[in-house]
Design brief:
alpha/beta, Elongation Factor Tu (Ef-tu), domain 3, 3 domains, five-stranded parallel sheet, 18 strands, globular, disordered N terminus
Length: 368
């Protein structure tokens, strides 16, 4: 029995996976990681714009049975005896993945990252990468309620949208799709060849080099698109400022919230700037005491605990930096924090928190 089915059968275990069980699993060998499947790298290619795609073939592709275009998947590698896991959007068509037993993930190497440099070293035939069951609710409906699907992406936010578009092409829905893609370079952008192939099949798309066009504005969408906002579904993926700006502009134009689907590649901008009651925001910085090392550091207002610690020269564990991988979990002994992802303020008693999405709103004691 895997942990997902255990959660369904025993409600007691709900919420324990990410906080307690998976961090323990990180330290175990690959063969002990529940639910993870070994893959074989069958293709490595450059997509332009510094993006690399790996094609990972699964001998047993049962975990792909319910895959939907737009979902993400957890990848794992071992390095120096430690398992490193991160979540990546799947950039291949769900239909192709299920039919041929592979997934494709596309990434840009972060020189300071723990996993992408290792992924970039993989070659055809490698069996080092393991994957878990796909997940996520940012998916393409195959029976859309609206007559047109509008996709708005920036940077690497194109990866799940690319999977959706290729799925739409397979089901002959691509002529109903419009893509706005915000990039730095209008000539050498990621996935240029794949997007051109989709354009040949009927995709309407506009590449928006931000140095010339700026970031999202409603006229970018409406200038050449006579379709009423109320007759479209909108799929947004990219940094928080794109999501928030585009969502509000669409709502102001008459779209309903039920028409807008999004995936943040980073913390939502509204969470980053969540207003804090005046009595909780009176100090410009708070003291964070570390019980194990008997030391402390200052955490400025509007700064996550992870960034505050790093600014003080400390090196706490971290992974995704957006609250997805749970590698920066630690025990808070006392004090209150703002969760930058949910906007909720904690109690002042003991609890587990994630450093990357927690902001001090009073002095804290951490078990580090």
């Amino acid at each position: 029995m895997n942990l997902s089915s255990l959660n369904e059968k025993l409600p007691l275990f709900k919420g324990l996976n990410d906080t307690y069980i998976y961090p323990i699993m990180e330290a175990l060998p690959t063969s002990f990681r529940i639910g993870m499947k070994q893959t074989i790298v069958t293709d490595v290619r450059s997509e332009g714009g510094g993006i690399t795609t790996l094609r990972l073939h699964l001998k047993n592709a049962s975990i792909l049975r319910h895959l939907k275009a737009g979902q993400h998947i957890e990848l794992g590698l071992e390095s120096k005896g430690k398992r490193i896991c991160r979540t990546f959007s799947i950039s291949s068509s769900a239909q192709q993945s299920k039919e041929f037993g592979y997934i494709e993930v596309s990434f840009k190497v972060n020189a300071n990252g723990a996993l992408t440099p290792l992924l970039n070293e993989q070659t055809v035939g490698s069996k080092a990468v393991h994957v878990n069951k796909p997940n996520g609710n940012f998916t393409l409906p195959l029976h859309p309620a609206k007559e047109k699907s509008v996709f708005i992406a920036a940077g690497s936010g194109i990866t799940p949208i690319l999977a959706m578009l290729e799925e739409a092409a397979f089901y002959n829905l691509i002529s109903q799709c419009l893509l706005l893609y915000y990039v730095k370079d209008g000539e050498h952008y990621p996935f240029k060849e794949r997007l051109s192939a989709l354009h040949a099949k009927g995709l309407s798309f506009k590449v928006m080099p931000t140095k010339q066009t700026g970031h999202f504005a409603l006229e970018h969408l409406t200038h050449d698109n006579p379709t009423s906002t109320k007759r479209c579904n909108f799929f947004l993926c990219g940094p928080g400022n794109l999501i928030e700006t585009a969502s509000q502009a669409l709502l102001d134009q008459g779209a309903d919230r039920s028409q807008i689907f999004h995936e943040h590649f980073g913390l939502p901008i509204t969470a980053q700037h969540k207003p804090i009651p005046a009595e909780d925001n009176a100090m410009s910085a708070h003291t964070v005491f570390l019980t194990r090392s008997n030391s402390s550091f200052n955490s400025p207002a509007n700064t996550s605990l992870l960034i505050s610690a790093e600014n003080e020269g400390l090196t706490p564990n971290f992974g995704c930096r957006i609250g997805a991988c749970h590698q920066c979990i630690c025990r808070k002994n006392s004090g209150r924090v703002l969760n930058l992802k949910t906007g909720k303020v904690s109690d002042n008693g003991p609890e587990d928190i994630q450093l990357c999405i927690s902001q001090a709103i009073e002095d804290l004691s951490l078990d580090i």
